[in-house]
Amino acid sequence: METKTAKILDGKALAAKIQKELAATIAEVQPKIGRPPGLAVLMVGDNPASAAYVSNKEKACAKVGIASFGKHFPTHTNQTELEEVIAELNQDQRVDGILVQLPLPNHLDAISLLHKIAPDKDADGLHPVNLGRLVRTEAGLRSCTPAGVMRLLEEYKIPLVGKKAVVVGRSILVGKPMALMLLDADATVTIAHSRTQNLKTITQNADILVAAAGIPRLITADMVKPGAVVVDVGINRVTDSSGKSRLVGDIDFAPTANVAEYITPVPGGIGPMTVAMLLQNTVSSYLRTNSN
Ligand SMILES: NC(=O)C1=CN([C@@H]2O[C@H](COP(=O)(O)OP(=O)(O)OC[C@H]3O[C@@H](n4cnc5c(N)ncnc54)[C@H](OP(=O)(O)O)[C@@H]3O)[C@@H](O)[C@H]2O)C=CC1
Ligand SMILES: Nc1nc(=O)c2c([nH]1)NC[C@@H]1CN(c3ccc(C(=O)N[C@@H](CCC(=O)O)C(=O)O)cc3)C=[N+]21
Questions:
Q1: Which phi and psi (to 5°) does residue 185 adopt?
Q2: Would you put residue 136 in left (φ > 0), alpha (ψ -120 to 50) or beta?
Q3: Complex ipTM, two decimals?
Q4: Residue 34 and residue 234: Cα distance in Å, rounded?
Q5: Could you tell me which residue, 183 or 1, shows the higher pLDDT?
Q6: Which tens digit of pLDDT belongs to each residue from 238-254?
Q7: Which residues contact 249 (CB under 8 A, 6 or more apart)?
Q8: Where, if anywhere, are coiled coils annotated (predicted)?
Q9: pTM, 2 dp
Q10: 11 lines ligand 1 (CB under 6 A)
Q11: How far is the CA of 31 from the centre of ligand 2 (A)?
């Protein structure tokens, strides 16, 4: 039997293009504004995955001309200390974006910290005001990963109106805002989660399938409708048979690529798009703050 291979939705290439455009915008307006955009990434503890991600973000900032005001705190840092740092950053004229790297150590209350970030500096789009704006389809800072998925689908002119979209995962960071953005684009959206029964019968209906559960190979080729658009948000570090550590998504990639029409790779798919959207959110806050 002849098998077709899906076209790749190249997040790495699009992220590079977006970063170039942001660099050009910054180079143009910075002389007028008199300072570069600034992003503060707060990280607590020493989760190795978080550390790698934070360092990626700082490199990307440096590349486009965004100043980093990152702070790394020891694991035992308490809630009040972090709240004070956020209050200072809210007031700091050099800082346009603030992000608290998740997950936080267990003794800290992430939700309450996110509430303390000034909504217009909320580069991650996780403050209740920005989530409310998303629900109401008002302009606002949007969660970076789902925004990156939407931007990538747009780049490849994937039709969404009236399509059946299935999102696997319902977190505040990814699944819920993803479902709302697809809904806003006039897709018919189903959200699946860990208590969903017969996941396969649901995913098999999807014209657009977004996997964001954090489980390697949760989605196998038999769960995917032929011709579907498959987006893999999952980032899982696994050890392969030769003992080497590598990143995989939630989709069983090679077999699924023989069924789908479009697919995102891991790495090189939604990860780089997330970073690009974070930079874009920071630059939009910078432009808005300095537009009068
Ligand atoms: N590419 C990128 O830029 C980013 C990637 N990620 C990655 O995406 C993945 C998801 O992240 P995040 O949303 O923060 O993770 P969470 O752990 O917060 O959420 C996972 C979601 O998946 C659901 N789930 C778990 N098991 C199953 C299952 N067997 N069947 C169906 N649904 C299931 C959970 O359901 P329930 O609610 O019932 O528990 C939950 O809603 C992770 O791999 C993460 O590393 C995250 C952010 C950015
Ligand atoms: N407040 C908060 N906001 C987040 O957006 C957030 C978070 N916390 N906590 C952790 C998750 C995870 N996440 C990733 C983003 C990009 C890559 C990324 O760039 N990945 C590259 C590979 C990187 C590598 O090789 O290590 C890729 O997929 O090609 C990975 C993971 C954002 N998250």
A1: -90, 15
A2: alpha
A3: 0.98
A4: 39
A5: 183
A6: 998 899 999 999 999 99
A7: 211, 216, 232, 233, 234, 235, 236, 264, 265, 266, 269
A8: none
A9: 0.97
A10: no
A11: 32
